[in-house]
């Protein structure tokens, strides 16, 4: 009897330890990201910031595709709204926080207005509408020279200090300080979206994706939920875009082009549509593959497309599915072998 109780307790402890493995790995990754500026140079920090920004951009996109079942090709338009909104504020008010907030709100307003027109349709009609509206924003960025600088874009955007009157003032001119700002903002955005997709609201979106008619029969307004999801995705695209001007010190019309909307699509397909961490893993892979290819050939777009296509076709569930199907069962087996008999 005593031995049986010990065995059960041992198995229970192993089970708890196994359940904590993802949390431990996540904490280790976060600690590594905070230590990164002390371990690497400016180029790796620059690349890491772009990966974090694309992760936020892709997570917002996947709220539409993976959780709501809506494919949008116009997210670059909201990305550009966030970038231009932030840039215009920073050129007038040299303070980082108002610029980021205004960029997010500017993108959110556009997403709310255009979403009201787009969510009435689904499937290919929705995709084409978002593509058209995204290209309209691109045309505005290209032609409205008094506001956007036209094909020259907006240049000389300062990396303004982070100021909260009477509380703090942090100089952001150095790459290291801005890296920590981007890291903290992106981590908070990821945590918030994780809470959203695991809330009753997120479960309702998944229900709409799986069976729109059944959700409608329960009395839930499908259009309202789609509009909210579309607006949140626009806000996340705006946040990602708003983080770009202080980093690059310039904003140009190609940010709004439909080809830029393809980046979160490819990142999400690479990582996995139906997993929360898929777009994050995909963003990392996308930039690593791109960085390696451009070192060897000027025709990097062809090779990047071929590699992404091969990975997507070879791994239909995304790269994260490998860990779910292979690594996690392997870890479970090792715990089972090591557990007391």
Distance between the termini: 14 Å
Provide a count of the helices. 15
Helix content: over 70%
Order of helices and strands: HHHHHHEEEHHHHHEHHHH
Provide the residue-averaged pLDDT: 83
Radius of gyration: 22 Å
Q: Mind describing the biggest β-sheet?
A: 2 strands, antiparallel
Can you tell me the residue ranges where pLDDT is under 50 for at least 5 consecutive residues? 5-15
Count of β-strands = 4
Overall geometry comes to globular
Strand order of the largest sheet: 1-4
Notes on the structure:
It is built from 15 helices and four strands. The chain is mainly α. The protein has a domain at 39-257. The strands form two sheets. The chain has a two-stranded antiparallel ribbon with strand order 1-4. A hairpin with a 3-residue loop joins strand 2 and strand 3.
